[in-house]
Amino acid sequence: MFNMNGETVSYDLENNALVIIDQTKLPNERIRLSLKTKEEIVSAIKELKLRGAPCIGVSTAIALAVLANDSKAETEEGFTEEFLSNCDCLIASRPTAVNLSWAANEMKNVLFSCKGKSLDAIKKALQDKALAIHSDDISRCKRIGEYGAELLKDANAILTHCNAGRLACVKYGTALAPVYIANENGHRIKVFADETRPLLQGARLTASELIDAGIDTTVICDNTASFVMKNKMVDAVLVGADRIALNGDTANKIGTSAVAVLADYYNIPFYVCAPFSTFDKNTLTGEEIEIEMRNESEISEMWYEKRMTPENAHSINPAFDVTDNMLITAFITEKGVIKPSDIKNCL
Ligand code: MRU
Predict the structure, then answer these.
(1) Using a CB cutoff of 8 Å and minimum separation of 24, what contacts does 329-332 make?
(2) CA atoms of 144 and 172, how far apart (whole Å)
(3) What is the crossing angle of helices 76-91 and 99-113, to 10°?
(4) Is 319 touching ligand 1 by the criterion CB < 6 Å?
(5) Residues assigned a catalytic role
(6) pLDDT, tens digit (0-9, with 9 covering 90-100), for 87-124
(7) What is the pLDDT confidence band of residue 256, given thresholds at 50, 70 and 90?
(8) How far apart, in whole angstroms, are the C-alpha atoms of residue 174 and residue 141?
């Protein structure tokens, strides 16, 4: 059984494949999948076998390189058409996380800069870019961890929502990076993980990777967050993000905005940890962010032996919500700690 301290997603150059950990099987089974076709990759994203904004971004870059390498197109025109159609297909697989279109755009720029070169040279340039995006994610997350660890130097415990750890990135994670870096420096910070209904990313994923890393971990029901804050059991809240608008409004896993409202009420700092690939300069405010709606059965049936709600009861299942910028103490990024009002100057 492999330990989750390694890389969540990687590029298997020898077999031209995107290698991921199947996150739907955690914590009970640890399975790596080797994905080669567009269909396999798109369904892995839709079914959340791979998930978390930076992880989806890096996977998109690798997927585009894998598919480009496999292309049977013989002309630059045919190759470009196929490449752009692969981009559209991947971008459409999940609408909220901006890292997906960010990565696709980075790859498109490489393609456009190679105009007139041989197809082999273009494929090699795309492969190099995918590898660069992959290793860049590790260093961005590490820097987020270093800035965050400094901010938390007197903290004893934090609360987090969903999974914004190494399973949501390549390594380290965003919201959990400060905990890992502090731990490496001998400062042990406890983590309270919201279980994160309905898909239990906190209970299944955050708890698994923290336990693998030897971090003191307590899983709480989402509705226990107020109890934990009121009783001064946490010093700060750290969450990740799927898309950050220019004014600082932030889309993240459903329930994040409720946690932010509670943190504000109890006067606990609320930090959003994210690389700049999650900031979207084309989105002015949170109102413009498209929220992915998922199947009702994730609420009424999944995880239960028998359906848990009456047949005719409706459910709504938005995968994300938007936290108002005024509830966010600061963003912890790879370039430092910034206030919502400073975003415009940093992009
Ligand atoms: O639906 P998911 O599991 O992909 O949602 C993930 C989140 O909301 C994370 O908090 C976010 O992507 C940040 S990951 C560093």
Answers:
(1) 329/269, 329/270, 329/271, 330/269, 330/271, 330/272, 331/244, 331/248, 331/271, 331/272, 331/273, 331/274, 332/144, 332/147, 332/148, 332/151, 332/174, 332/178, 332/238, 332/271, 332/272, 332/273, 332/274
(2) 9
(3) 170
(4) yes
(5) 242
(6) 999 999 999 999 999 999 999 999 999 999 999 999 99
(7) very high
(8) 6
Looking at the structure, give the CATH architecture of the domain made up of residues 9-140.
Answer: Up-down Bundle (1.20)
Q: Cis (ω within 30 of 0) for the bond into 27?
A: yes
Q: Is 255 left (phi over 0), alpha (psi -120 to 50) or beta?
A: left
The helix/strand/coil state of 130 is helix
pLDDT of residue 225: 98
Q: Where are the domains of the chain?
A: 9-140, 146-346
Beta carbon of 152 within 6 Å of any ligand 1 atom: no
Ligand 1 atom with least separation from CA of 173: 15
Q: Which two tokens stand for residue 143?
A: 């820097």
Q: Which two tokens stand for residue 61?
A: 């870059």
pLDDT digits (tens, 9 = 90+) for 160-208: 999 999 999 999 999 999 999 999 999 999 999 999 999 999 999 999 9
For residue 5, pLDDT beyond 90:
no
Does any ligand 1 atom lie closer than 6 A to the CB of residue 273?
no
Q: Return the CATH fold of 146-346.
A: Rossmann fold (3.40.50)
